[in-house]
């Protein structure tokens, strides 16, 4: 467009005239106005070039033909973008990263990737067009977001998997992640070893361990990443600093609580002598855990079913702490951040000598401030998972 404008203004400046208008008295601004008018479809009719040098008339003819062609091509491109806004961008992809889902794990990974200065193109496939993370992914992290289901062949076919650098399937649906992984490997076998699959249920992870997908992909559990960092960086030092065997109270015995206990059994053998698990479905969760990996024989285990804010439940905790005679370790990690904060503050108030760890799902300045003032160790799941991600993923 700039070249066409320069050609038109130059032509009118070297003495070329037009048959339909008298532009002899126009200055540079006037000539620019009339040349820009050539870009309006059905706009200014200046007539044919006359007079002036031959090269000037040639330049004006270039402007006459170039301006409407540029305008028409712009309109066609806009129409294509309205019909297929990502089509053109997807065709240019090479050595890009494909992410399944726009949830917390994806946000943690993308943020860490960009913080490292990695400029690879990122493509996120999300089923929910109204997902609240989509604007941030597009505007802040410059990711292309495709609305679709990764298990559908028509979606996979547009991702240029054969040219992708890495694929991470991070949705909250374990089966969808594994199903998509099998289809990705079938379409792009070269991604074997560079395919990461999140499986949140430990039982599903164990039962699919012998599959072809498990051999060619890296299957991980976000809670396991977080629990490993928590045990290695904080609980181990606590056990080391207390000569007596500790009483561990796990408030919330879902996936995170079970994973913490499994890590404790593997990495803190005989560093504690009793574990109390508290959850509204604690007995049910304990049966699941006893099936695999199972409670170790070298510590006592008891279960309290009920609301973790119920005074009766806390009376049961007090009974066990008094029998133990040691300052307890609380790991508060139920499924609700607000409830977790209340439970952690209750533990700190009731047992001043206790070591209290509070886990939240997301970074919260309010939680951090309140926990710090109360002497509670606060961690958010995203931070623990980010710290646990292997360097090779980045």
What is the first-to-last residue Cα distance? 41 Å
Uncertain segments: none
Binned strand content:
15-25%
* Number of separate domains: 3
Count of strand segments: 14
- CATH class of the largest domain equals Alpha Beta
Summed over residues and divided by their number, the pLDDT gives a mean of 90
Count every helix, treating DSSP H or I runs of 4 or more residues as helices: 17
Shape: elongated
**Shape-level CATH architecture of the largest domain:** 3-Layer(aba) Sandwich
The radius of gyration over CA amounts to 32 Å
Give a quick account of the main beta sheet: strands, pairing sense, barrel closure: 6 strands, parallel
CATH superfamily of the largest domain: NAD(P)-binding Rossmann-like Domain
* Structural class determined from secondary elements: alpha/beta
Name the strands of the widest sheet in spatial order. 5-4-3-6-7-8
What fraction, in percent, of the residue positions are helical? 40-55%
Q: Examine the coordinates and then state which fold CATH places here, giving the name of the CATH topology of the largest domain.
A: Rossmann fold
Could you give the topology of this structure?
Layout: H1 2-13, E1 17-18, H2 28-36, E2 49-50, H3 54-83, H4 87-91, E3 97-100, H5 104-115, E4 122-126, H6 134-139, E5 144-147, H7 153-157, E6 166-169, H8 174-187, E7 195-198, H9 202-207, H10 212-216, E8 218-220, H11 222-241, E9 246-251, H12 255-267, E10 272-279, H13 282-291, E11 300-305, H14 311-324, E12 329-332, H15 337-350, E13 355-360, H16 365-374, E14 377-380, H17 381-388
Parallel strand pairs: 3-4, 3-6, 4-5, 6-7, 7-8, 9-10, 9-12, 10-11, 12-13, 13-14
Antiparallel strand pairs: 1-2
